[in-house]
Amino acid sequence: MINNKYFRVNWVLINELAIGPAPINQKHLGILYDLGIKGIFSLCSTKEVPSNNDMLKIFEFRRFVLPDHKTGRIISTEELISSLAVLEDLKRRGPVFIHCVAAMERSPLVCISWLIKKHKLSLDESLSYLMQAHSGTNPLPEQLNVLRSQEFINAII
What we know:
alpha/beta, Protein-Tyrosine Phosphatase, Chain A, six-stranded mixed β-sheet, 7 helices
């Protein structure tokens, strides 16, 4: 774990996938660069976290906006599967840092989904693992129910 008071980066998979809150300044970008991060995957809207030109110069960057508790709707299976495809493409370039605003709901949900799809862990195993790797993990029960759905299970096999 790299801890900078308000910017805590945790490796989900060492030198492959890291998670944390939105990088909002040069110091945060420097931390990610020093960790060997090659890509940044944002799950936030531009209203939540505006684009940063320096980030775009240093890292491969993808934005795929997902709903959180403030939107009043739950992520769909299609959105989740599409986000995994974006993550897979970005990971081809090297280690990826995935974030939402606080790294509590959306980015942990995508990481859990990744562990289920790519590492064949169960939902309970993935959630437990991620809670140990990233203590801020706190997806809503309704979000986790999407991962339990037959639609999601059928989509990842």
